[in-house]
């Protein structure tokens, strides 16, 4: 079924891949973004409404101008470390901003939203694989901001009949295989792009944060998930809300954890370049291990990741970083 989708944060890394997939699936798309970290070049030819979640009038104007069947909401501040230093900034943008969006949706009679949540809602895990029954316990303001929005969505389902799907991504990485869009954060804080920027010599050296975690080599373990596999889960979530009332939550990862050193070794092999690194102190707010059990997304949504090997994820990211079309390193 063809839908009219408003993508908040659609000019960002994951949002721009979502926009591409929505267009390929035949949907009509409008992007709402303040371009604080997004790139207009990532959504060329797509209608962009430039505005801020913190300005309710910007949101009202979008819903007045466009017919919207459902919202996919990526817009947020995303750096765990920064959220520890500036919690107010994170709560305002991620929680107040989302409340403004939900108010505008309600005024406009739009009752469906897919929300970008995160593995950070779990904090320090109590089991090797994290499914949806795992207790919630964020350990940084970023994770708390997402946890709070998940609660708001549940309460608004009860109060107003809002339908929602919160997708908890583990570590998003990789890029569209066409090489035209990819991750272009500035500053970059994520491991995979930093490793590749080091392979390119754009960064002199990588610092590995923490070598004394209780893991097989002392460095943190993460579950990397390809950005297009994340996007495909959102398409399925739109269908799911047709037949399911209420607020739903799904964990999205590949179920395989890799240590930070294993990521560096894999990238070294694939790029055939040296990747110098040193061991540095732990970064505030990091969990030792975060690996998903995504059985529920597979059985209930029918989700089937296509780019699940770490090699494929890093290869597609490498294609992009080697020749980025926009962002801080384009043309360098
Ligand atoms: N990247 C990951 O590994 C990861 C993991 C888990 C969850 N997430 C979540 O996925 C979502 C997208 O992440 P991303 O990596 O694409 O981030 P991103 O920074 O590339 O994209 C976020 C987009 O939202 C926009 N934005 C931010 N605040 C806004 C505001 N107040 N008003 C309007 N637009 C605003 C930015 O300009 C940007 O285009 C975020 O909600 C993030 O928390 C990301
Ligand atoms: O220069 C660096 C950067 C990162 N790391 C390490 O690499 C691992 C992964 O870090 P990322 O910053 O790439 O990703 P996070 O796991 O911190 O966070 C990501 O996943 C989270 C969910 O767990 C959030 O959703 C968040 O938005 C998203 O950035 C961590 O152990 C981190 O300490 C380094 O060693 N050196």
Topology summary:
Layout: E1 4-8, H1 13-24, E2 28-33, E3 48-50, H2 56-65, E4 70-73, H3 80-85, H4 87-108, E5 112-118, H5 141-160, E6 163-169, E7 171-173, H6 191-199, E8 206-209, E9 221-222, E10 224-226, H7 227-243, E11 247-252, E12 258-259, H8 260-271, E13 277-280, E14 289-290, H9 295-301, H10 310-322
Parallel strand pairs: 1-2, 1-4, 2-3, 4-5, 5-6, 6-11, 7-10, 8-13, 9-14
Antiparallel strand pairs: 9-12
Bound molecules: nicotinamide-adenine-dinucleotide (NAD) and galactose-uridine-5'-diphosphate.
What does this entry look like structurally?
By secondary structure, the chain is of the alpha/beta class. The chain folds into two domains: 197 residues, Rossmann fold (3-Layer(aba) Sandwich); 100 residues, UDP-galactose 4-epimerase, domain 1 (Alpha-Beta Complex), CATH 3.90.25.10. It is 39% helix and 17% strand. It has ten helices and 14 strands. The strands form four sheets. A seven-stranded parallel sheet has the order 3-2-1-4-5-6-11, with helices on both faces. α4 packs parallel to α5. It is globular and about 55 Å long. The protein starts with a strand and ends in a 10-residue tail after the last helix. The mean pLDDT is 97.
- CATH C-level class of the largest domain is Alpha Beta
Low-confidence stretches: none
Corresponding CATH superfamily of the largest domain: NAD(P)-binding Rossmann-like Domain
The secondary-structure class comes to alpha/beta
Report helical residue fraction. Answer: 25-40%
Average pLDDT, rounded to a whole number, is 97
CATH topology description of the largest domain? Rossmann fold
Main sheet: strands, sense, barrel: 7 strands, parallel
Pfam families: GDP_Man_Dehyd (PF16363)
Subunit structure: Homodimer.
Organism: Cohaesibacter marisflavi
GO molecular function: UDP-glucose 4-epimerase activity
